[in-house]
Amino acid sequence: MCVKDDNERRKDHDKEYVGFATLPNQVHRKSVKKGFDFTLMVAGESGLGKSTLVNSLFLTDLYKDRNLLNAEERITQTVEITKHTVDIEEKGVKLKLTIVDTPGFGDAVNNTECWKSVADYIDQQFEQYFRDESGLNRKNIQDNRVHCCLYFISPFGHGLRPLDVEFMKALHEKVNIVPVLAKADTLTPAEVKKKKIKIREEIEQYGIKIYQFPDCDSDEDEDFKQQDQELKDSIPFAVIGSNTVVEAKGKRVRGRLYPWGIVEVENPAHCDFVKLRNMLVRTHMQDLKDVTRETHYENYRAHCIQSMTRMVVKERNRNKLTRESGTDFPIPMVPSVTDTETEKLIREKDEEVRHSPSRDPHEQTQHPEPEPCEDPASEPHPKMCFNVTINEHCMIFE
Ligand code: GDP
User: Fold this and answer.
1) How far is CA 33 from CA 23, 26, 97, 376, in A?
2) Which ranges are annotated Basic and acidic residues under compositional bias (predicted)?
3) Secondary structure of residue 174 in the 3-state scheme
């Protein structure tokens, strides 16, 4: 009797159930299938342990073929930007991790404006994304925007050096900066504490806008709130890196062996390595990507559109002056060298849309109804473009 009641109740409940509660599962399934990507930049003078820390963070050897320069070569070397990409997989979830390194930063005798090539690199990635997004093949955009920059601060100075201030101030509007205090095993716990306070004060004093952890919701449990506060108080993360595994208290751990003992990289009593890794991978990776997209990239985009509008208005005014009739006319087509290129892209796009394979059969059974316009590029596009030259590149607008 009781079983029947239960069944009836379930049937009644099913009648009221539309099914959108499964939406998160659908999103989850799609994201896992697509895989994730993340681009991390490391900056700071050479020898501060950047490559060692990256290898320790992701348990890979990303710097197998690194070429270390001697002192003489370093004096003349300009800042270089190098990129290493690895595909890592954990429990079926794939992550394409890109590490952008900045060898040569801060190594020269005169380091004036040595942050410039780093800033240019970040802008170039935004520009490429902007061009791809404004173009015709939006389906296969490769996103190379930098989501986070770990900035290494030397443990040997008294707080921030002028170069640190200059770098962070020049880049804080372009990328999420997370400052780290390098080689924390060279400092005593009291020194680490003092240096962290000093660096935080200086960050405030110089108006540097480092990455801000989002505030946690008021309904979160107390444990979570406390962890969140601890994370915020850890800035700059005091880190230790090591590429070697040593034996400590019968366990094999990543650490550094000294005559007086072992420093364990993953021991929270020794440094903030675990906190940093959890923040980067487990808790804030998506937020770092969101802030990149919603704040830094949006800023860049708004800037670009503003300068393009200004150029178009200028061009219009110039044309107005040279025209006999003073009547208004539509936005001019700037004589373009890429007209044929645009036509070629349109033809390719048409071809792609015509030959695009139907969704895979497995997905079809899962989603019998076509999803509403998931790929903006497949929307009918008006074949009208205007081209504007900006920074010597031609932007194409649909
Ligand atoms: P990078 O030039 O910034 O990439 O620095 P490397 O990772 O190549 O490290 C330079 C040197 O510092 C190497 O000899 C490392 O073994 C050492 N090193 C790296 N991390 C640490 C650390 O956390 N503490 C100490 N004491 N040495 C480190």
Assistant:
1) 15, 11, 16, 20
2) 341-370
3) coil
pTM exceeds 0.85 for this model = no
How many residues are recorded in the chain?
398
Q: Which two three-digit tokens encode residue 69?
A: 């320069």
SS3 helix, strand, coil % of the chain, rounded to 5? 45, 15, 40
What are the residue boundaries of the structural domains of the chain, listed by start?
23-60+77-309
Smallest CA-to-CA distance from 194 within 225, 238, 152, 151 is with 238
The residues lining ligand 1, judged by C-beta closer than 6 Å to any ligand atom, are 46-52, 183, 185-186, 240-241
Protein residue with its CA nearest to atom 17 in ligand 1: 49
Rounded to 5°, the CA angle 104-107-112 comes to: 100
Residue 365 pLDDT = 36
- Separation of CA 42 and ligand 1 centre (Å): 13
Pick the CATH number of 23-60+77-309 from 3.40.50.300, 1.10.3720.10, 1.40.20.10, 3.30.310.50: 3.40.50.300
Mean pLDDT across 41-58? 90
With the most atoms of ligand 1 within 8 angstroms of its CB, the residue from 41, 45, 48, 52 to mutate is 52
The torsion of the CA quartet 132, 134, 136, 141, rounded to 10 degrees, works out to: 30
Query: In the numeric block, which tokens belong to residue 364?
Result: 């079809």
Highest mean pLDDT among 58-62, 190-194, 315-319: 190-194
| 122: its two tokens | 């970040």
User: Parallel, antiparallel, or unpaired: how do β-strands 93-101 and 36-43 relate?
Assistant: parallel
- Which residue, among 100, 112, 202, 238, has the nearest Cα to 163 in the 3D structure? 112
pLDDT at 1 over 90: no
On whether the CB atoms of residues 377 and 138 are closer than 8 A, the answer is yes
Residue 312 pLDDT grade (very low, low, confident, very high; cuts 50, 70, 90): confident
DSSP line for 89-140: EETTEEEEEEEEE-TTTTTSS--TTTTHHHHHHHHHHHHHHHHHHHSS--TT
Instruction: Tell me the pairing of strands 148-153 and 393-397.
Output: unpaired
Task: Encode burial over 191-217: b for 16+ CB neighbours within 10 A, e otherwise.
Answer: ebeebbeebbebbeeeebebbebeeee
Measure the CA–CA gap between 94 and 86, rounded to whole angstroms.
Answer: 10
